[in-house]
Amino acid sequence: MTTLSTIIVLALILVGTVLYVRLWLHYRRNIRKVAFMFDAIDNVDFSFKFPTQHIGHDEKLLNQSLNRIKLFLEHARDEAVAQEKYYEQIMDAAGTALLVVDDFGHILQHNKAATTLLQRETLTHIDQVKERLNDGSLALRETYTTLRGSRVRIIALSDINGELANREVDSWIKLIRVLTHEIMNTITPITSLSETLLKHAEGEQREGLETINRTSSELITFVENYRRFTHVPQPQPKLFYVKPFVERMAHLASHPVTVNVMPADLLAYADEGLMGRVVTNLLKNAGEAIDAQEVDTTTAADVLPRIWVNAYTGDDDSVVIDVCNNAELIDADVAQHIFVPFFTTKNNGSGVGLPLSRQIMRVSGGTLQLIQDAQKGVVTFRMKL
Known about the structure:
Layout: H1 2-42, H2 57-93, E1 97-102, E2 107-110, H3 112-118, H4 130-133, E3 138-147, E4 150-159, H5 160-198, H6 203-230, E5 238-241, H7 242-252, E6 257-261, E7 267-270, H8 272-291, E8 307-313, E9 319-325, H9 332-335, H10 353-363, E10 367-373, E11 378-384
Parallel strand pairs: 6-8
Antiparallel strand pairs: 1-2, 1-4, 3-4, 5-7, 8-9, 9-11, 10-11
Helix pairs in contact: 1-2, 5-6, 7-8, 8-10
């Protein structure tokens, strides 16, 4: 009896041990599954899937539950990524420069307008732009919010000079519209009446009427030139290749023009016709600058007056077209007024070309600026889209 009892006890211990080992191995295998799943999720890897076929009932239930948890977390991750991209697109679409800064000065987010305005390819800390923020050229607005459980500052920046320039252009447009309206209302009847009287006039009377008619016609042409500044057509933007576009403009220029486009398949999204008007005017001005310069025949060939156009992608992914010449630098007192309507230093100039070109760039969502390199003697008009 004692031997039998011992055998039974040993058998029970053996069975218990086997069951314990099996349970422990099962538990450990399940723990490893859970650990594997969270390790994969930490590494943003959602490609795994636990098998649900040809396995025991309990393991099948566990695997199905883990697969559902994975799908739920993957869906939540995708929604968070999509929402973040959505907010980034909203920020980039904003014309105002935006910075999101934490309490330690780290720039967590910024938009393209910020890199353009602050002239920085990358923005990581507020100290990078501290001098620019304090130089008085920027208008700054701040607001506080919470991002991922931490307090952050949202800083909105705008160029005071740019805003003033836009307001100045708007004021000029309003003034020109009023003046052209009043002048045209006055001069048109005079022109029409003088043409009618000329049919029956003779002698000195005819000469006087011809003078009146010619002068009034010239005034109408003069006014029509200024009216163009206030009536820039609404841009119809389309994608076009920059290289053939610039080469076509260069072919129409009065002087030889060297064209450099990088990359060769550079694309721009703008109204090609309006951009053509701007480039044509800039090339015309460059040609006139060369014509106005006295050429020294002893000057080396590599420094002779010339015109060239460089087109490339800017740091902010914008399309940049530089129209350059090395004829002569523009005096500082002249340079600050060249985009002002009616201002001209040419005997037969109208003072409309450059203001109209800048207005075209403005309504196209781009910019036109003058850049001078005194060391190299290069004048550049930069179109940025």
